[in-house]
Amino acid sequence: MEPRNILNLAVLAHVDAGKTTLTEQFLYHSGTIRRAGSVDNGSAQTDRLEIERNRGISVKATEASFTYGGVRINLIDTPGHSDFAGEVERALLAPDAALLIVSAVEGIQSHTERLWNALRKLSIPTVIFLNKIDRAGSRTKEILSEMPERLAMVGVTLLPMVEAVGEGSDGFAIATPADLADRATEAAAELCDDIALAYLEGEAVNPDLLEATLRQGVRGQKILPVYCGAAQKGLGVGEVLDGLLRFLPRASERSTDELSGLVYAIEHDKTMGKVARVRLFGGTLAARDALSLNDGVLSLSETGEKISQIRITEGARFRDSGVASAGEIAALCGLSTAKVYQTIGSYRLPDRLRLALPYLQVKATPETEEQLPALLKALTQLSDEDPLLACRFSKAEREILLSITGKIQLEVLTSLLWERYQLRANFSAPTIIYKETPSKTGYGFDAYTMPKPCWAVVKFLIEPLPQGSGLVYDGGHVPNNKLFYRYQTHIEQSVKASLSQGMLGWEVTDLKITLADGEHHTIHTHPLDFFVATPMALMDGLRNTGTTLLEPILRVKIRAGEDFLGKILSDITRMRGEFDSPVIGGTAFTLEALIPAATSLEFPLRIASLTHGTALYSSDLAYYKPCPLELGATTPRRGPSPLDRSKWILYARGAMTDENYQLM
C-alpha cells in the first residue's frame, strides 16, 4: 500500500485506562475480527504473552494492522504500567501520530503527564480519548477543565469533538457539542488570519480552509481534538476512528526516496531467531538484501548479514511479505547482530527520550548450578529486547545482575523464562541503584608511558552539573599534531564505560568532562593505549573532586478516602518524603508527594492494606538528588580499579586475568 494510505499510530495510556480494549474495538469495527476480544478473559488479540492474558495487563508493545476508510492503520499497542515505560520509550520512535487514552474515572495520572510530555518533545500529533464514561464516578467535564494545567498545555487549544451525556448512569451516551462549530472556528482563527477576519466580521468561513487549518493545527500540536466514550460497550469507537483519519498525518508526510529507517524493537522467535522490528521512512528492503553495520548504521552491502524474511502485520498476525517499503512497519529476520536504536541508511536518531530509568537492582540465580549458562543466555536475550534490563554477569561471584523499574517486572521475567525457555530463576529482593556525582571541579591526569611500548597522556577537566544533566563530553580542543584525532575518538568512546563505577562504586552522572590536554608518540603509541589511560585519568580526577551520593526520588500520586489522610501523611513524613497540600473532593482526597525510593519500597502494599484496596496509587521516578552517605549505600567495585595502577595496567595489557571485570 502506498505510504499516503498508511497511518502509523501509537496507542498510549496510563494503566487500566482501557487501551487494549479500545484496540480490540478498532479491529472489530474495521471488520478485521468477527468478535472483539476481552482483557478480562484473556482473549485480546494484542495480549500475546501468557502473563498478559493471566494478569490482564500489557507488558510488551505489540502491533496490529487494519484498514478503515481506505487507510491502513498500523497500530502499536503500548503497555500502560509505568514499570514498562521502556517499551513505550522505544515504540514512540516508530509512529506518525498517537492516540492518548485517559480514564474518565481515574483522570490524569502522573504517567499520563509523562506520556504527554514525551509526545510534545517528539512533536507527535495527538488525539485524546476519554474512556469509561459508563462507569460510576466518570467526570469528563472536570478532567477537561483540569487538563490544560495538569498537562501544561501552553499554546494548545482543546477541541472536544463529542461530549458525554448521562455519564456514570444507565443512560450514558455521547453527543456532538452544540458549540462545536464556533469552538472549531475560534481554534482555527488562532492559526489563520483569513479565518480570524471572517469570524470577526461575521462572515461565513470557507469550509475547506477551515478543515485544512484544523488539520494543520493538530499536526502542529496547536489543536488537541478530544473524544469520549465507553470502549467496552463500543460507544464512541467509530467517532474516534473517523477523527484519526480526519486529523492525523499519513506516513507519506515523512517518507523519502533514499533508504532510511530505524530498529525500534528486538524480539526472539523460536524458529527465526532474532527479529528486528523496523520503521522504514524511505526506500525499500527485500528478503535476501544484505545489511552491514558501520558506526551504528545499517547500510545495504554485498557482504553484510542477509535478511532471511520480512514480516508485515495483518490484523494481529504476521505474514511473509518479502518486501518492506517506505512508511511501513516490518519485522526483519536474519540480522543476528541487530540492536535497538540502530539506524538504517540516512535516518538520524533524534535525542533519546527517557521515559524509564531503572532504580532497582536484583540478582538472578538458577535452580541448579548446571542451568547457569542457559539462564545467562536467556536473560541476555531478554536484555536485547529490553536494554534497560542491562543484564551483566559477575564471573567471580557467579551472579547475574539485572536492573528493573518495579517488582512487577520480576513476575514478567519469571513468566517469560518459563514460557520461552522452560527455565526457572530465583530473584533476590530488589535493592536501590544509587548514583554519584563530582562534589567540586577538578582535574584528572595520567601519563601512561611505561612499560614500553606505550605512550598515552590524558588530562581532563571535570565539572559537576545540575541534576538530570547526565554526561556532557567536550573534546576537540587538542590539536591533531599533539594528539591524533583518531586517538581522541578512542578517549571519547572510553569515557562513558569508565564512568560506570565511581569512587563509591556507582555510575557517575551529572558532570561535564572536557579533554583539556593529551599527547601521543609517533613510535611508541599503540591504538589501544588510550583505552588503558582514560579510566586511570578519570578516576584520578574523581579522587580529586570527591563524589556525592545520589538517591532516586519517586513522584507518588494517591487518591483515597479522606479518613486515611492523617495516617498516609504521617507515613510520608516518616519516609523523608515531601508532599503538596491535599486536594479534597467529596469524601476523597488526592495527594502528590516526593519520596525516596529507598524508604518506600513497601509503601504501595501499606496503602493497599490501610485502605482495604480502595486507594488509587501510582508512582514513577522523578529524579536523583544528593543523599547523606549514612542514609544511602556504597557498592563494591567489580574488577580491578584504575586507581590501583599496576594491577590495572597488567590486566588491561592481558598480563593478568580478572574474570569479574570487562574492559569496555
Task: Please tell me about this protein's structure.
The chain folds into five domains: 3-177 and 223-253, Rossmann fold (3-Layer(aba) Sandwich); 255-345, Beta Barrel (Elongation Factor Tu (Ef-tu), domain 3); 360-431, Alpha-Beta Plaits, CATH 3.30.70; 436-545 and 640-652, Ribosomal Protein S5, domain 2 (2-Layer Sandwich); 550-631, Alpha-Beta Plaits, CATH 3.30.70. It is an alpha+beta fold and 664 residues long. The chain is built from 16 helices and 36 strands. It has a nine-stranded mixed beta sheet. The protein has a seven-stranded mixed beta sheet with strand order 2-3-1-4-5-9-6, with helices on both faces. Strands 26, 30, 32, 33, 34, 35 and 36 form a seven-stranded mixed beta sheet that branches. The longest helix is centred in the last third of the chain and has 17 residues, at 529-545.
What is the topological layout?
Layout: E1 6-13, H1 19-29, H2 50-55, E2 62-68, E3 71-77, H3 85-91, E4 97-103, H4 110-121, E5 126-131, H5 140-150, E6 157-160, E7 163-165, E8 173-175, H6 180-189, H7 193-200, H8 207-219, E9 223-228, H9 237-247, E10 260-269, E11 273-282, E12 284-286, E13 290-294, E14 297-301, E15 305-306, E16 309-314, E17 317-320, E18 323-325, E19 329-333, E20 343-345, E21 360-366, H10 372-385, E22 392-394, E23 399-404, H11 408-421, E24 425-427, E25 431-432, E26 435-438, E27 442-448, E28 456-464, E29 471-474, H12 485-498, E30 507-508, E31 511-520, H13 529-545, E32 547-561, H14 565-574, E33 578-579, E34 583-585, E35 588-596, H15 603-610, E36 616-626, H16 645-652
Parallel strand pairs: 1-3, 1-4, 4-5, 5-9, 6-9, 14-20, 26-30, 29-31
Antiparallel strand pairs: 2-3, 7-8, 10-11, 10-20, 11-19, 12-18, 13-14, 13-15, 16-17, 16-19, 21-23, 21-24, 21-25, 22-23, 26-32, 27-28, 28-31, 32-35, 32-36, 33-35, 34-35
Helix pairs in contact: 6-7, 6-8, 12-13
